[in-house]
């Protein structure tokens, strides 16, 4: 496909004010009649044709103002309909198309999931339902009539409010008419038809309007939808309180389906979800599942204002809705749970997914300048780094300044298809600041590096911080400009208390934030009577890679005393990471290195600090992942050596901290029935982290404890955690436990996904054959994205030693899987292929095999645009 460039943006030539859809559902021949109220756009090109997008469509009829169009008046292909010389005035175009939802394996447009009809239109799926100007800056008011066999689809849903329903006289069919008064782009269109159970509730908005809430699930699963409903109501209240955003229809529905390309979709008034992010019960869902459900329900709901009421002008502005909405859902979860633990989890996700993306061939700015396939830009950079950019705005402007900017944004742009510039202008105008340099965060790709060193001048009683920033070239961007970096800092005195931050000009560093704008800058603090330890980038105030001259002893001090919980956590991780890098080098030459005593002691005192939140302690105990270590090493990476070093460290920690771990395990035993609340989840997290380290060395006592934990578990969190410990650390006990787990949950696909994913992660040479074998297991299907992601996706993204096997067989397996999938579901195939994104950091042998596998994919004729785009950028 031809690249699409931001610089080529032109307003649409024709606008659509109204869309009246008549959809007659049929498993293989659904008839769609679309009546479009069009008018020339005064801002478009005068006298232009009407060009409508299509994708795999069969045109049956077309009329203009009620008259059939002559064959010479239009050109129709399966991918476009052009009305050649339309009258330049408001007109009504009626288009009839036929689509086959059962044959739709791409899961874009109208498709069937376990028999339920559903739609997915973002980014460009509406054109697979009818011909339409499929771009987000064409906003219309939709009325949707759906008709179906009552027996097959008793539930008929679409966007907006229900205005009419009934039987189609003299037939076995029925219909429903939905009207959405809010103009919207077509990517927010949705309809659902099926046999579904409903969980009902209601919400009264801040101004007293009653909203009917419904969560629809497969028959028999309503008992697992209660938590999603609860999360929805909490989200609705939170958005009113935190941002003044009130819901605006009489109805809000959520539908859970089993076949879905992503997590969920924010269609106006009718969110459609991957059922993985709706269904939960203590027996089937882990604490992590509950937290994900809460966060994703909130995320999609929050889109009602950031995405729907204010949408994007074009797909380059995707971060405008996604980055902002991720920021909002992160804040919601932080308010509902532990703020520090949520921040730690969010930063871990950023570092593990976004940092490698930014460092590899797929790097792109938060707002890309060009794309060949928009589906490939729903990335960690757009979402997670996009959220960090919004967070930095808040750090720079403060709570009130940020809220003033958001208020102005909602006020000024309600009903608009907006841009990043529009968004930033609201913050600049509301606060009287210039954000020109800040805007570089949207334009420059790559992770800035910040090198910081500190010097205490005893005689002058001052402390100087020298800061320098660099940003390495990334694909398509060789020259970089310095960024605005809000660096939150503290100076921690010998007693562990923060010192006042008075700069040498007598001003205070506002909210403890230093503003870095130059390649090199120095900051001098006065009245520093004793040598402090600087705590840098507190709360991870900027998404940068920070290096400092802090000694191990100073990091240990921060791990024990820093008032900033994120940095307290991060100090321990920094020590562990530095050790793992060294130990990896040693492992490559067959040497073993003992971990620093100081690290063991610091973790020991964290473990025994009863003032700390157990969830925080659990995070502190988790050793940096193999991916973290690979990223830190950055070149000539040998995953086997990393694995050996990490395994040895975990074993040492388990042995050295055994008494404290056993005490923590005992202290956090459950005291009542399972509850998914944050405190209970935190206690389980610490108990399970203790169990894990105690078994890490494979000692009979540790394994026996894990077996007992598995057998006695009364909830999925404990049961699955124990199973994971056995799978990774107890080859002898593993198979029996895996078999028992499967037998118990074989009829529950979402739990079977956990079973598949766990086996895909085992860091042993037999895993590739195991994963290959599982692709033919009755529980696996290439056509369900959740199954594919659980088995093949987990293997490629988590199992560093086996995906990057020295013999290249892991790379070949994933390349074959991508090719197998591509014909069926290009989006899922392309995402799987993106697991190769860090292939260039591997040692030469593995790098060569990754390249061979990528070239084999690239050489396959007839690749989808999705896979072709990823493979060509990966090889550039
Ligand atoms: N806005 C939604 C993105 C999405 C999506 C994109 C492409 C293809 C399928 C998709 N399903 C959902 C979800 C979100 O980020 O809120
Ligand atoms: Zn989103």
Automatic annotation (TrEMBL):
Residues 446-548 form the Peptidase M1 alanyl aminopeptidase Ig-like fold domain. Keywords: Aminopeptidase, Hydrolase, Metal-binding, Metalloprotease, Protease, Zinc. Residues 45-188 form the Aminopeptidase N-like N-terminal domain. Its cofactor is Zn(2+). CDD domains: M1_APN (cd09600). One of its GO terms (biological process) is proteolysis. Residues 553-876 form the Peptidase M1 alanyl aminopeptidase C-terminal domain. Pfam families: DUF3458, DUF3458_C, Peptidase_M1, Peptidase_M1_N. The keyword Ribonucleoprotein does not apply. Residues 227-438 form the Peptidase M1 membrane alanine aminopeptidase domain. SUPFAM superfamilies: Leukotriene A4 hydrolase N-terminal domain, Metalloproteases ('zincins'), catalytic domain. Its EC number is 3.4.11.2. It catalyses: Release of an N-terminal amino acid, Xaa-|-Yaa- from a peptide, amide or arylamide. Xaa is preferably Ala, but may be most amino acids including Pro (slow action). When a terminal hydrophobic residue is followed by a prolyl residue, the two may be released as an intact Xaa-Pro dipeptide. One of its GO terms (molecular function) is metallopeptidase activity. NCBIfam families: pepN_proteo. Belongs to the peptidase M1 family. This is Aminopeptidase N. It comes from Ancylobacter novellus (strain ATCC 8093 / DSM 506 / JCM 20403 / CCM 1077 / IAM 12100 / NBRC 12443 / NCIMB 10456).
């Amino acid at each position: 496909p031809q690249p699409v460039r931001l610089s080529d943006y032109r307003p649409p030539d024709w606008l659509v004010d109204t869309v009246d859809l008549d959809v007659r559902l049929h498993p293989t021949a659904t008839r769609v009649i679309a009546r479009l109220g069009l008018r020339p756009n005064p801002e478009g090109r005068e006298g232009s044709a009407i060009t409508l997008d299509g994708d795999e469509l069969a045109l049956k009829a077309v009329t203009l103002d009620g008259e059939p169009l002559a064959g010479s008046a239009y050109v129709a292909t399966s991918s476009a309909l052009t009305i050649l010389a339309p009258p330049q005035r408001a007109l009504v175009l009626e288009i009839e198309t036929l689509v086959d939802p059962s044959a739709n394996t791409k899961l874009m447009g109208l498709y069937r999931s376990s028999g339920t009809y559903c739609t997915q239109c973002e980014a460009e799926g509406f054109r697979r339902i009818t011909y339409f100007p499929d771009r987000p800056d064409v906003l219309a008011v939709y009325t949707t009539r759906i008709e179906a066999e009552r027996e097959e689809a008793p539930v008929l849903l679409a966007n907006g409010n229900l205005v009419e329903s009934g039987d189609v006289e003299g037939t076995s069919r029925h219909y429903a008419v939905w009207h959405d008064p809010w103009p919207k782009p077509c990517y927010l269109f949705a309809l659902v038809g099926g046999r579904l159970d409903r969980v009902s509730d209601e919400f009264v908005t801040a101004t007293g309007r009653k909203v009917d809430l419904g969560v629809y699930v497969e028959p028999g699963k309503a008992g697992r939808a209660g938590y999603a409903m609860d999360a929805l109501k909490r989200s609705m209240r939170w958005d009113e309180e935190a941002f003044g955003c009130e819901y605006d229809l009489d109805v809000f529905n959520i539908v859970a389906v089993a076949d879905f390309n992503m997590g969920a979709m924010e269609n106006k008034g009718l969110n459609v979800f991957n059922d993985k992010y709706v269904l939960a019960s203590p027996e089937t869902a882990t604490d992590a599942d509950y937290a994900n459900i809460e966060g994703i329900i909130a995320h999609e709901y929050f889109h009602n204002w950031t995405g729907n009421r204010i949408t994007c002008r074009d797909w380059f502005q995707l971060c405008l809705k996604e980055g902002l909405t991720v920021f909002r859902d992160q804040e919601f979860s932080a308010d509902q749970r532990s703020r520090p633990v949520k921040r730690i989890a969010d930063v871990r996700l950023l570092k593990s997914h976004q940092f490698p993306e930014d460092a590899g061939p797929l790097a792109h700015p938060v707002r890309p300048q060009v794309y060949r396939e928009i589906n490939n830009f729903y990335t960690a950079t757009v979402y997670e780094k996009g959220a960090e950019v919004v967070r930095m705005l808040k750090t720079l402007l403060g709570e009130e300044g940020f809220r003033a900017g958001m208020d102005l944004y909602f006020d000024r742009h309600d009903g608009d298809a907006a841009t990043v510039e529009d968004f930033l202008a609201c913050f600049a105008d509301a606060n009287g600041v210039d954000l020109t340099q800040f805007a570089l965060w949207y334009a420059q790709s790559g992770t800035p590096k910040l090198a910081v060193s500190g010097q205490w001048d005893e005689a002058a009683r001052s402390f100087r911080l020298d800061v320098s920033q660099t940003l390495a070239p990334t694909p398509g961007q060789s020259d970089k400009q310095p960024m605005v970096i809000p660096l939150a800092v503290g100076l921690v005195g010998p007693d562990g208390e923060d010192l006042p931050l008075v700069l040498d000009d007598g001003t205070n560093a506002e909210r403890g934030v230093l503003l870095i704008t130059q390649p090199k800058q120095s900051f001098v603090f006065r009245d520093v009577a004793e040598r402090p330890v600087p705590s840098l980038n507190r709360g991870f105030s900027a998404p940068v890679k920070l290096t400092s001259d802090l000694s191990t002893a100073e990091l240990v001090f921060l791990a024990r005393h820093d008032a900033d919980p994120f940095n307290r956590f991060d100090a321990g991780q920094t020590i562990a990471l530095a050790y793992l890098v060294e130990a990896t080098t040693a492992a490559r030459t067959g040497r073993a290195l003992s971990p620093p005593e100081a690290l063991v002691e610091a973790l020991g005192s964290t473990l025994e600090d009863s003032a700390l939140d157990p969830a925080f302690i659990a995070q502190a105990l988790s050793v940096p992942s193999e991916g973290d270590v690979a990223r830190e090493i950055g070149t000539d990476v040998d995953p086997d050596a990393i694995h050996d070093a990490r395994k040895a460290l975990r074993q040492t920690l388990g042995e050295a901290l055994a008494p404290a771990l056993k005490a923590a395990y005992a202290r956090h035993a459950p005291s009542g029935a399972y509850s998914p609340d944050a405190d209970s989840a935190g206690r389980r997290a610490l108990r399970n982290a203790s169990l894990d380290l105690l078994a890490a060395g494979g000692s009979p006592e540790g394994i026996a404890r894990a077996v007992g934990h598995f057998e006695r578990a009364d909830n999925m969190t404990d049961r699955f955690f124990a199973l994971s410990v056995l799978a990774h650390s107890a080859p002898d006990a593993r198979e029996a436990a895996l078999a028992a787990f499967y037998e118990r949950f074989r009829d529950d696909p979402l739990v079977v996904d956990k079973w598949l994913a766990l086996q895909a992660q085992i860091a042993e040479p037999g895993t590739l054959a195991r994963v290959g074998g599982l692709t033919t297991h009755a529980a696996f299907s290439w056509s369900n994205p959740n199954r594919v992601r659980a088995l093949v996706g987990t293997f490629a993204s988590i199992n560093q030693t086996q995906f990057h096997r020295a013999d290249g067989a892991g790379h070949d397996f994933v390349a074959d899987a991508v090719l197998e999938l591509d014909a069926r579901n290009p989006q899922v195939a392309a995402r799987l292929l993106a697991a190769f994104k860090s292939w260039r950091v591997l040692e030469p042998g593995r790098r060569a095999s990754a390249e061979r596998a990528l070239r084999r994919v690239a050489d396959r004729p007839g690749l989808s645009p999705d896979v072709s785009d990823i493979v060509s950028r990966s090889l550039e």
